[in-house]
């Protein structure tokens, strides 16, 4: 048991899928066999079950870097997890991206002041684990689920008032914006844990179009399938 998770030692698998919405974790857990809920503290549900015979956990983290960093710290330092795959949603920044498409985040820029606590170098950005990136490409090819690969941006501020806020990101070719990946990649590297982030486009920053809540659940299932296949093939070294 840790401060915010009541799972017994051994109840959380070495590979954990994380997602902002704890109800999405509950929904995703329906894709596992024999899944059980190991955490109810603060309603931040977490489940462990089997996918094609492999133990996998799915944990809600809440929105944003502070909440995600707290759960990820406890998962790594108190429950010894070895691999984390974020399955989240993001806003598209490039006109070529369509609602429901999936982004594979190579690296994540950020405006957060706390990521530097774990990512101490300047001039580069926290990156995905290369083995997991490669596995995601293989799974994408085999399943026919298309991935859009590139840089994303993790922000601390969902709503911002400047009209030109996204201009630089768009012109630099940043694919999408969300609120956690930069810290997930930075912490994972710091603690020698593997990390990958898959993001379903839930809205379009440029056009304002957005998926309805029920559509969002439907569209995120493809991303979940891909994440489970990556998790299945991942070996801990
Ligand atoms: O769908 P999730 O994983 O919550 O991710 C995105 O959605 C939330 C904002 O609506 C932020 O957490 C953002 O990163
Ligand atoms: O952080 C996020 C997540 C989804 N869509 C956005 O526009 N921002």
UniProtKB/TrEMBL annotation:
Residues 16-221 form the Nucleoside phosphorylase domain. GO terms for cellular component: cytosol. Keywords: Glycosyltransferase, Transferase. The keyword Lipoprotein does not apply. GO terms for molecular function: purine-nucleoside phosphorylase activity; uridine phosphorylase activity. Its EC number is 2.4.2.3. Gene3D superfamilies: Nucleoside phosphorylase domain. It comes from the Bacteria. It catalyses: uridine + phosphate = alpha-D-ribose 1-phosphate + uracil. CDD domains: PNP_EcPNPI-like (cd09006). Pfam families: PNP_UDP_1. One of its GO terms (biological process) is purine nucleoside catabolic process. InterPro entries: DeoD-type, Nucleoside_phosphorylase_CS, Nucleoside_phosphorylase_d, Nucleoside_phosphorylase_sf. NCBIfam families: deoD (TIGR00107), PRK05819.1 (NF004489). Belongs to the PNP/UDP phosphorylase family. This is Uridine phosphorylase. The lineage of its organism: Bacteria, Pseudomonadati, Bacteroidota, Cytophagia, Cytophagales.
